[in-house]
């Protein structure tokens, strides 16, 4: 994702720390590194040791060019933006570092942590999905609102969230850059043990996304590995996909030629309200 693709960037949330604007000297304070607690909403879980060591060396030689952003809390400070700078600074002999102290709500702290990483393109797809989930479940964003805020498509955000349904082992491989999102998406229809089997096949044989999809289809045809076996009529499957594209959530159609039912799975109250509004609009 490009920086321009983000709907509401860091400059909107932290205007005083815009990269294109000089920060007034009197707004920057030197604060003790030991008094800064990490951002609890930091979505990034994997940090490159080599990259941090390079940054630490640069800090020792040139100092910290851009101050971190913190908020005051419980007699100390909580990091809002600048995780890599803080980690690298702790690897040096510096006891203090420059910081801009501002007031932020919990919601803003979580949003800034996500946007900062998206702008740097630092997050892997699982970390990104976990961050979306936090903003939706803990801070009341609907998927539609979050997609607009980040400048993403609604369907793209939904597809990213679906990756959280992968098994723990497969998610771990994605987080460590062993597998790509494209390679693992077809695994979502498989049981956990079969997901890991296919993941090992990808690693050992270097399968691309299309080959993974073919392997998953073979497993499902053999009656193995599916989370729930469903003999789906191609017309029903097409109807499901049309409905999912229209309303943006998972849809299952179950039944026969005479009768059946449509199951719509929504992920938060905002989804339900949006779907109901769609039906109301039709009169």
UniProtKB/TrEMBL annotation:
Cellular localization per UniProt: Cytoplasm, Nucleoid
Main localisation: cytoplasm
Gene Ontology CC: chromosome; nucleoid
All residue ranges annotated as the ParB-like N-terminal domain in the record: 29-118
InterPro entries, sorted: Chromosome_partition/occlusion, HTH_ParB/Spo0J, ParB/RepB/Spo0J, ParB/Sulfiredoxin_sf, ParB_dimer_C, ParB_N
Tagged with keyword DNA-binding: yes
Signal peptide: none
SMART domains reported for this sequence: ParB
Any matching Pfam family: ParB_N
SUPFAM superfamilies: KorB DNA-binding domain-like (SSF109709), ParB/Sulfiredoxin (SSF110849)
Protein name: ParB/RepB/Spo0J family partition protein
Organism of origin: Proteinivorax tanatarense
């Amino acid at each position: 994702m490009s920086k321009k693709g983000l709907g509401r960037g860091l400059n909107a949330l932290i205007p005083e720390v815009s990269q294109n604007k000089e920060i007034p000297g009197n707004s920057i304070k030197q604060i003790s590194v030991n008094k800064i607690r990490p951002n609890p909403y930091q979505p990034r879980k994997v940090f490159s040791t080599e990259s941090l060591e390079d940054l630490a060396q640069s800090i020792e030689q040139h100092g910290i060019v851009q101050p971190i952003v913190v908020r005051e809390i419980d007699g100390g400070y909580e990091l809002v933006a600048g995780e890599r700078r803080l980690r690298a600074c702790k690897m040096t002999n510096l006891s203090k570092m420059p910081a801009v102290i501002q007031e932020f709500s919990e919601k803003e702290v979580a949003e800034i942590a996500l946007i900062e990483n998206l702008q740097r393109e630092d997050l892997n797809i699982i970390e990104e999905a976990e961050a979306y989930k936090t903003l939706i479940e803990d801070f009341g964003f609907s998927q539609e609102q979050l997609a607009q805020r980040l400048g993403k498509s609604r369907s793209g955000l939904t597809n990213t969230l679906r990756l959280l349904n992968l098994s723990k082992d497969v998610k771990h491989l994605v987080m460590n850059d062993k597998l790509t999102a494209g390679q693992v998406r077809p695994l979502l229809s498989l049981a956990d043990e079969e997901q890991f089997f296919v993941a090992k096949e990808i690693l050992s044989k270097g399968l691309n996304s299309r080959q993974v999809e073919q392997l998953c289809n073979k497993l499902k045809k053999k009656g193995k590995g599916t989370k729930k076996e469903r003999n789906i009529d191609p017309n029903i499957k097409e109807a499901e996909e049309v409905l999912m594209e229209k309303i943006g959530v998972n849809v299952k159609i179950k039944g026969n030629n005479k009768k059946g039912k449509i199951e719509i799975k929504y992920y938060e109250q905002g989804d339900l309200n949006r779907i109901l509004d769609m039906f109301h609009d039709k009169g």
